[in-house]
């Protein structure tokens, strides 16, 4: 009885650690997204409204920089929010079932 309680407590602690890590990743992503939105606002102000924002850190924000930054944000979002949907446990189980069904169908066809 004592052993199972210890195992349950250990599982609960591990799940809490995983949840905390996920929350930290989401927090970092939203912070990065906020900074990105400020960068987009500055880029649009420079590019389309012609504001003279040509001091040191701002003068490096150009189209290439914004495309790269957008790609990085998109990759982060996919890794954070869609990773489990595409390559998670459910996906693995569905694929295994699909392959097993194909194998069973092929065996039945040859018999």
Describe the overall structure:
InterPro entries: 2TM_dom. This protein has helices at residues 2-49, 63-87, 89-110. The mean pLDDT is 83. The chain has three helices and no strands. The N and C termini lie far apart (51 Å). The chain is mainly alpha-helical and 111 residues long. It has one domain.
Taking the alpha carbons of the first and last residues, their distance comes to 51 Å
Q: Provide the number of structural domains.
A: 1
Mean pLDDT: 83
Class by alpha and beta content: mainly alpha
Low-confidence runs (pLDDT<50, min 5 residues)?
A: none
Quaternary organization: single chain
One letter per element, helices H and strands E, the order comes to HHH
Main sheet record: none
Q: Choose one word for the global shape.
A: flat
Q: Which band does the percent of strand residues land in?
A: under 5%
Helix share bin: over 70%
Task: Determine the number of helices (DSSP H or I, runs of at least 4 residues).
Answer: 3
Write a concise synopsis of the structure shown.
This protein has about 110 residues and is mainly α. The protein is about 85% helix and about 0% strand. It has three helices and no strands.
